[in-house]
Amino acid sequence: MHIVVCIKQVPDSAQIRIHPVTNTIMRQGVPAIINPFDLFSLEEALRLKDKVGARVTVLTMGPPMAEASLRKALSLGADDAVLLTDRKFAGSDTLATSYALTSAIQKLAEEQPVDIVFCGKQTVDGDTAQVGPGIATRLGFEQLTYITKIEDLNLASKEIVVQRRSEGGVQVLKTKLPCMITMLEGTNTIRFGKMDDMFRAARYELKTWSRDFTGAEEAKVGLKGSPTVVSKVFVPKPRAEKAVMIQADGTSPDALAAAALDAIFAAQPKLADDLLARAAAGL
C-alpha cells in the first residue's frame, strides 16, 4: 500500500505581521513550520502504516528551504520525501498548485500505485481548503473531506470506512480506494519522533523534482496557470466606537434587560416606532 501525504511549509501564523505601507506579509524573521492541519493527516497516515505496513511518501511544493519541513516529517516516521521546487512554480494559486502536485503524484505512481492521498483540511496562510479536492478531481480519486476517524481499511476489497463531520452531525462513509482524505484538526495526537527516525531524516537524500521532471505543462503552473490573484493583504482598521457602560437599577435579569433595551432605543430612536408598526401589521 502506498500513501502520499501533501504538506506545506507556512509562516508561523502567531508571528505574522503586515507591512504598514505595502500591506504585504512580512516574512523576515518569521519562523517557518509545517502547516498545522497537515500534521493531523500525516499522523493518520503513519497510523495506517503501523497498522497495515504501508509506505508513506511526503510531498511538498515550495522553495528549497521547505526541505526542513520534509525532514521533520521523515523524523516522525515517513519513509520517503519529495520536494517539488522550481522558479516556474512561483505565484501558483490553488488551481495551479493542485495541478503541480497532481503531476508529482502521478510520477510517484509510476514507481508504485498510490492508494491514498492525505491533505490537510486547509492551510493557515491561504485558508482556502481547495488544494486537496483539486488533487482528487484531477486524479479521479474519491474525496473524503473533514474526516474525524478512519473506522476500517480493508486491503483485500480495497474499501475504506470513515467518519465525516457535517453540519447535521456525523456521516459514516464507505468507498473504494484510491481516495483523497483531509483530516479534521484535533482528530489525533501528533507523535514524537523516534531517535532512529531522526538520524535517518538527517542523512536522507531528498528527492528534488522540477517542473520538467514531473512533466507538468508550463502554461498550467505559476502565474501563467493561475486565474486568481491576491491583490491586497491588509490589517482591518480598529473600530473608533468605544464600549459603553450601561447602568442598571439593580442586578436582576429583568433590570439588566430593561437597561439594555433603554440604551438601544435611545441610540436608535426609530427602532421603537418600527417595532410597533410591525406588531400592528401582525409581522
Would you kindly provide a written description of the structure presented here, covering whatever features stand out?
FixA and FixB form a heterodimer. This is Protein FixA. Residues 22-218 form the Electron transfer flavoprotein alpha/beta-subunit N-terminal domain. Keywords: Electron transport, Transport. The N and C termini lie far apart (62 Å). The strands form 3 sheets. This protein has a 9-stranded mixed beta sheet with strand order 11-10-9-12-8-1-6-7-13, sandwiched between helices. Strands 2-5 form a two-stranded antiparallel ribbon. A two-stranded antiparallel sheet has the order 3-4. The chain is α/β, with parallel strands linked by helices. 33% of the residues lie in helices and 24% in strands. Helix 2 (67-76) packs antiparallel against helix 5 (195-203), helix 3 (94-111) crosses helix 4 and helix 7 (253-267) crosses helix 8 (269-280). The chain folds into 2 domains: 2-220, Rossmann fold (3-Layer(aba) Sandwich); 240-283, no CATH class. Strand 3 and strand 4 (25-26) form a beta hairpin.
